[in-house]
Each structure stands twice: as C-alpha cells, then as structure tokens.
Amino acid sequence: MVDISRLDEWDLQWRHRVESLNSAPQLQMFEVGSRGTLVGGDVVLSKSPDDELQAMDMYMTAVKPGVWTITFQDPREEDDFERILLHWISPGPLNFDNLPTDVVPPNLTPITKWAHVGGYNVDSGVGGVFDLDSLESLIQSHEDQDKEYIFETMADFLLEDNFTAVQVGLVVGGGDGGYTLKAREYQGEKVEIMIQRSWGEGNDGRTGHDEL
C-alpha cells in the first residue's frame, strides 16, 4: 500500500478521487473530452521518458464526449476478466468530487451492431484505455512530476490497490497478450465499447484495426 503521508496535495487529491471512483462498482467512470479520442496500450511501457505515448498502440476517434461508465462482465478469477463494457451515459461534465450515484445508460436508438474498431498489446501485465484530453491534462497539471510518474502511479493503483478507474480512464490486468475492442455507434459516434482478451498464442490485439 502507498504511504499517503509522503504524498503532496496534488497526489492526495488524485488518490482521493481514484478511491471514490472505486468505492462502488457503479461509480467506476471517466469523462471523454471534446476531441472524442481514446488511446490504449501497455501502461508500464508507456512510462518511458523517451516514449511519446508510442506504447499506446490503440488510437480510437469519434468517441462520444461525456461521462462513461466501466462495467466488468463474466470474470473468471478475481484479478481477471472476460470483457469490459464502457457505456456513454451523459454529456457531462463529471464532477469527481461529487460523483453521480444513480447511473442508468440512456436508451439510444437506432444503434449500430458491434464492430471491431481496434486493439492493443500488453507485455508488462498492465494495460489501459484513456481519454486523450484527460490524460494530457493530467500529465501537464503537475509541475513536479512527468509522464513517467503518471503512468507508474496508474499501474500502482491497479497492482497495489486493485483500483480500475483512474480518473482519466481505466487500468486492467488479465495477463500479457492482445486485447481487442468493439464498438457500437449512435449518430456517427461510439457510445458503447467492449474490451476483450484476444485468446490464442501469439494473437495480436491490433490485427490491423488500430483506428476506425
């Protein structure tokens, strides 16, 4: 566990928000910014100071801006998952210091069928999907720390505290290998996203579908 007595005010605020987001399953959420862009990939490899988010090898556009929930389905083991569903629920903004407690995904019709829209690979045991606007803002908001610190802290949230929601998106374990993403759209924007393991030895989660 992290020794909170050694954290400064910025770190304490971030940790408090992450603790609140993971205090109940229905509170696990994040906000997609105005660019509507998600990035995903290996969290630990992304902390290299020489890496300009290159380890984030999934780049997804046309994601509906607003508040999104995180839901695990069909877990096989306590630290594993069969799939994760991300749902758009409201335009936002999301007040991390006063989280909504009654969250119901809206009934959006007509909505498209599930389609494969991307994927990423993990070699360190920790992967993640993040809103690009929020991630860049978080990295720039701490004068005393850098990108390496941000990604290392997000990995620690999972490895040491078993936290999934990290304010700017989500971090997950589940093993090394490929992860594929499918999405459904409403009026040309992605409003539901599914993250799944790409089962099979040597399976690459990207498979030529890095962007839609």
Could you characterize the architecture of this molecule?
With 212 residues, the protein is of the alpha+beta class. The protein has one domain (4-197). Helices cover 18% and strands 30% of the residues. It is built from three helices and ten strands. The protein has helices at residues 9-21, 132-141, 147-161, and strands at residues 29-32, 38-42, 58-60, 66-73, 83-90, 115-122, 127-131, 169-172, 177-186, 189-197. A six-stranded antiparallel β-sheet has the order 1-4-5-10-9-6, covered by helices on one side. A hairpin with a 2-residue loop joins strand 9 (177-186) and strand 10 (189-197). The protein is globular and about 45 Å long. The termini are far apart. Mean pLDDT is 86; it is low at 208-212.
Give a quick summary of the entry.
This protein has about 210 residues and is of the alpha+beta class. It contains three helices and ten strands, in the order H-E-E-E-E-E-E-E-H-H-E-E-E.
Which key features would you list for this structure?
disordered C terminus; alpha+beta; 3 helices; 10 strands; 6-stranded antiparallel β-sheet; 212 residues; globular; single chain
Strand order of the largest sheet: 1-4-5-10-9-6
Oligomer state equals single chain
> Strand count, sense and closure of the main sheet?
6 strands, antiparallel
| Total DSSP helices | 3
- Average pLDDT works out at 86
Which structural class should the secondary elements be placed in? alpha+beta
Q: How many strand units?
A: 10
Number of domains: 1
Uncertain regions spanning at least 5 consecutive residues: 208-212
Measured distance between first and last alpha carbons: 39 Å
Order of helices and strands, N to C?
HEEEEEEEHHEEE
Shape: globular
Strand content: 25-35%
The amount of helix comes to 10-25%
Structural Rg: 16 Å
